[in-house]
Amino acid sequence: MSLSETLLPVAVLLPLGAATLMLALAHWLPPRLPKIVAIFVALAVCAICLGLAHASLDGPVRHWFGGWTPDAAHRPGVVLGIGFQADPASAALAAFCGLMFSASFVFAWGYFDTEHAHFHVLMLLFLAAMVGFCLTRDLFNLFVWFELMSIAAFALTAYPLGRSALEGAFTFTVTNALASFLMLAGTGLLYARTGTFDFATMGEAVARTGSDPVLTGGFVLVAAALLTKAAILPFHLWLADAHAVAPSPVSVIFSGAMVSLGLFGLAKLVAQVFSGSADVTGLVHGLLHGLGLATALVAGVMAFAQRHLKRLLAFSTISHLGIMLTALSAGTDTATAGLLLYILGHGLTKGALFMVAGTLLSLRQSADEIVLYGQGRGLWAPALAMIGGGLLLGGLPLGLMHGATGLIERSASAPAQAITTLATALTGAAILRAAARIFLRASGVPGPELLAPTEREHEKPDRPVWLMAFPALALVALALVPPGAALPFLGAATARLHDPSAPPLALPEGGSVNLVPLGLTAALFALALLRRRALHRPARAVTRAERAGFRALQALHSGLVGDYVTWMAVGLALFALASAL
Amino acid sequence: MSTLSPGALPISALPWLVAAWLFAVGLYGIVTSRHCVHLVGCLTVCQSATYVLLLGLGYVREAGPPVFYDHPPGTPAVDPVVQALVLTDIVVGAAVTALLLAIAIQVQRRRGTLDPQALRPLRPPPPSAE
Amino acid sequence: MTPRWRLLLLALALLVLAPAVLRVALTLPAFGAPTAALGQTVNALAPELRHVANMVAAVNFDLRGIDTLGEECMLLCAVTGATVLLRGARGEHDTARAGRLPGRPVTPRADATVLVCRIFATLTLMVGLSVALHGMTTPGGGFQGGVIAASGLLLLYLGEGYAGWRALVPPPVLVALEGGGALLFVLCAGLPLLAGHPALQNRLPLGEFRDLYSGGLMVLVNAAVALSVAGSFGLLLVEFLEETREAGDDPISDEEDR
Amino acid sequence: MTLLVAALLLLAALSGLLVVLSRDPRRQIFAMAGNGLVLGLLFLALQAPDVALSEIAVGTAVTPLLFLAALAAIRMDRAKR
């Protein structure tokens, strides 16, 4: 075995080993050690995966656990064991997860002082699950990491033990547990038909079978689970509650990496397993595209109407996930490349923004932009990170996200482009509005956001500001890297996601600078801050209508677990309808 | 689909329909539940649907268990792979149930109620903010 | 949404789903005649390749061992989460404290009860151990054995009462068992890498078919799972039973706690 | 399909319904233990003794016990209020 083949399982086993060791010794470890170990393990995982990404440029790196290679059974189409496979895209995403975790560990320094290593044990298991999710090439193994990711996330959400955190965690657990049952059932259906779990072998079987309700049903169940994780309308309702109430260092991971992994998993499955099924590709191009657009728009509007900073960011995450789903459903090579780049750019930016929210929760004891009005003075580093992040999300023509948007829009229709641009502008303007209120004392009468739910809470104070600000600024700086440098790698990554031996793709060098999103962001931002109390009758009527509209939308996101589960069933029904037509 | 006429429903589809039934019933329970602990119980019903489905998929008529202690290897046996998948999942399912129950206990302590209709993570702002 | 509307929406969704479910159910391979080749291949090959009689164990601990490691970690996550939730609210930041809560008023128990409970607890433990040990040859294995052994703890609780019980099963030991078992599994997976073999490769002598020791590395993995599951479920039971006691029942004296 | 498997499948469907319909959590525990037992027997009939063992240990013993403990804790909290 070559070095990279040996290192492939280490990327998962290292965090697992560190976590179990820390748990076994939790009672006797000095309190500082787990924090240091966790940072180094996350960095090591990042380094290993970067190495794997580099090595896989010469062809995919594979590792068969227990030595059960596909020919161990001496029967074609029967794969006895489980394989990991690093292609450039998967390995790069795993490395990205390692990076986000190390940033989050630095940010969380001092947050969980009193607890016995439990936080770090859970986080390391979480990291291992995400890396495994990226690297596996076995459907049931994918389910295992998906579920491990979910369970670690449940536990971490409830960790602060606050009222909201507990209720958010309850909703989160119920909806996502249901999603994992769906995924297990879907995996079972696909196994019953194809007789294998291995992606490549399953892909061949799917292409042989052709149109078949069992395969489509299996895909729908698995996709519904992944879309629940990726918070796509109407499966998205849990996210805003969970991300808003989880501890900030955990929210960084949730919004920055976990949710977009759901979409990456879906993209990988569509490319490697279901590319030969016309039914499935029809669903992807049709229903998923519509769902993506709807998600982007609804969540964008919801983000604009929030006052609780973390909830605002959570809705912005949903909105951007909708945009990513449109890229996924477009299915062209440039759009897929755009999707991969967007995951990175969005994750870095959103991670930084959640860190800013966490900083405010720690230093100013609130995350409500109206309560915090003018309280951010003197915190120049978080202000810088927040304004930078808001501009990036709002379409600043610099950095990874802009490059990604350029790639995605090449294969988007004009109405789709209009919707995604509007969604981008709404989320960007919402964040900038909050930043202006908190840090610059800019005012304007609050609009619909005044009615949004909020919570009085805080996070552990007395943590060094620079340890919280540095990772946020570093992530924003990384998101500002010019995308041109990454294009050759991205070309190889996109091509290999579909076919491990494909030649690298030549991606179009950065297109024209598109200033429309930024202009729209600025306009919405100005609109929010120039708002004055409605005095005249027509103005009042407009305000009332606006409030009624937003109230209806807020009512949809009721926070009641029964509602959320009902909407999940509706989502499944949508899939059933779309595949029957 | 020509096989969709109601009279021609083959009995061999029974396990799949039972699985779908269990899942639907569980969903109904979750949606109408007025007590979080009851809701968790309904969730376990949904989960049992996946077990029935998977084990049904591996069943082979007139075959023995995939344990060759009494029968020599080579005697017909059912699919061991789906059994392995379900086996571990049952244990994990119990642990997730425990996690949910722990959350429910704490919700009761913090809120004094366990009616899912009354639990929503973030509350509308206090009127004083106007 | 009012509950009525919600129910209506759910009914509508299920109604739409019903024909789709029916269609899938009717196109699936008929019950009792699966077409998947993997399972039958395992049945045909694994007895010879791994010298074990229980195919489920062969799949769980060897062929798809990394899945089992993942499931093991889920268990760890869920139990750790539940522990944090329950303990955090009791204000027990120190794990040691949960292990020694002296001064619990002991309800006097008849000697016969204590004896019967001790006997049954021992029996349960033995059954659990036996189920775990015979995992390679007969139905059973680390998962089931671990759960059974952990439920033996409950009988001890009935017999010994709270104080004696807490003294017998201190949570730090259970946590160490839980984490240590999983660590052993990770080592089983990782150590072959150092020798240049694939992770989890079964390099130990395979033993005799139908023997207690058969399956090589699988025996070790099975033991690791048994330890970890027993520790996890033991901890879960301890923490939940702790919740059923009044908080003010037994004020902890500081001297004893130190 | 043998009659036994069919009967157990229908019984499982019924006991699952009972779990959902027992709205009182304390009564639901008994329904749940019954459901676990039925499922265990069904798995045994489906030639899955390993899974049956696991389901009976977990479904009829450990899970109901956890529910009992949780309900006791909740009752105590309600009594305090």
From TrEMBL, chain A:
Cellular localisation: Cell membrane; Membrane
Protein's UniProt keywords contain Membrane: yes
Keywords: Cell membrane, Membrane, Transmembrane, Transmembrane helix
Transmembrane stretches, start-end: 6-29, 36-57, 89-112, 119-136, 142-162, 169-192, 218-240, 252-274, 286-305, 312-331, 337-358, 379-400, 412-432, 465-491, 511-530, 560-580
Domain NADH:quinone oxidoreductase/Mrp antiporter transmembrane: 137-401
Superkingdom of the organism of origin: Bacteria
Membrane topology: Multi-pass membrane protein
Family annotation (Pfam families): Proton_antipo_M
Family, similarity comment: Belongs to the CPA3 antiporters (TC 2.A.63) subunit D family.
Designated name of the protein: Complex I subunit 5 family protein
Organism whose genome encodes this protein: Methylorubrum rhodesianum
Record lineage: Bacteria, Pseudomonadati, Pseudomonadota, Alphaproteobacteria, Hyphomicrobiales
From TrEMBL, chain C:
Keyword Iron-sulfur part of the UniProt annotation: no
Domain Na+/H+ antiporter MnhB subunit-related protein: 115-233
Domain of life, per lineage: Bacteria
Pfam family name, one: MnhB
UniProtKB keywords: Cell membrane, Membrane, Transmembrane, Transmembrane helix
Span of the signal peptide: none
InterPro entries documented for this protein: CPA3_antiporter_subunitB (IPR050622), MnhB (IPR007182)
Membrane-traversing stretches: 112-133, 140-159, 179-200, 212-238
Cell compartment(s), UniProt: Cell membrane
Topology class, membrane: Multi-pass membrane protein
Family: Belongs to the CPA3 antiporters (TC 2.A.63) subunit B family.
Identification of the protein by name: MnhB domain-containing protein
Phylogenetic classification of the source organism: Bacteria, Pseudomonadati, Pseudomonadota, Alphaproteobacteria, Hyphomicrobiales
From TrEMBL, chain D:
Chain segments annotated as transmembrane: 51-74
Domain MrpA C-terminal/MbhD: 10-74
Localisation per UniProt entry: Cell membrane
Keywords: Cell membrane, Membrane, Transmembrane, Transmembrane helix
InterPro entries to which the protein is assigned, alphabetical: MrpA_C/MbhD, Nuo/plastoQ_OxRdtase_6_NuoJ
Tree of life domain: Bacteria
Location (main, coarse): membrane
Topology in membrane: Multi-pass membrane protein
Gene3D superfamilies xref list: NADH-ubiquinone/plastoquinone oxidoreductase chain 6, subunit NuoJ
Entry-linked Pfam families: MbhD
Protein name as it appears in the record: DUF4040 domain-containing protein
